[in-house]
Design brief:
With about 180 residues, the chain is an all-alpha fold. About 70% of the residues lie in helices and about 0% in strands. It is built from nine helices and no strands. It is globular.
């Protein structure tokens, strides 16, 4: 496993193919179109919320003190409610075991937050975009430093990468499900 450049570099390199597949799935959507945006939010919620719930169950707040500020499920629920859309079902149960797995999963969600800030510019006027609201760039830097500090052995890094890949796979599955089968027209 790649370890030069720290855990952040290894996570990025080892999950690149997963990330590209997720981006490809969601790239066909027009976020200025209400129906496409609704599909996007449903697919995101069906993956994001179970991962956040797993992070909470796993004790992420003891590892990342600013965890309450990082949570986006409430914003997701508000955006869906404003659009009059019921909360989607999760694609599957999701669990995380151990600090390395928690950090690997959080890496994906926090990376998603960065991407969301870019996507927010594409959301149509009058559509809610709290979930895509930008985060604190300092929080991302603190997470990267924490990854380098805590994923400091090959085993820990492998467990972090495995969890990150599982989170990307959950988003991919959810994207496939909601983007191909659900209609909000």
């Amino acid at each position: 496993m790649i370890f030069d450049g720290g855990a952040r570099s290894a996570l990025r390199a080892e999950t690149r193919a997963h990330h590209e597949r997720v981006d490809r799935i969601f790239s066909s959507l027009r976020l200025d179109d209400r129906a496409d945006y609704a599909k996007f939010l449903c697919a995101q919620a069906a993956a994001h919320i179970p991962v956040e719930d797993a992070l909470i169950r796993g004790g992420i707040a003891a590892i990342v003190p600013d965890w309450p500020k990082r949570q986006r499920s409430p914003a997701m629920r508000s955006d869906l409610a404003e659009l009059g859309i019921a909360m989607p079902e999760s694609t599957e149960p999701f669990d995380l075991d151990g600090e390395a797995a928690l950090l690997g999963a959080l890496y994906v969600l926090e990376g998603s937050r960065l991407g969301g800030a870019m996507l927010a510019r594409s959301v149509g006027a009058g559509l809610p975009a709290r979930f895509l609201g930008g985060g604190d760039s300092g929080a991302w830097r603190r997470l990267l430093a924490l990854l380098d500090e805590r994923l400091d052995t090959a085993l820990k890094l492998a467990l972090g990468v495995k969890a990150a890949a599982a989170v990307f796979t959950l988003f991919e599955t959810s994207g496939d499900r909601y983007l191909r089968t659900i209609s909000f027209e």
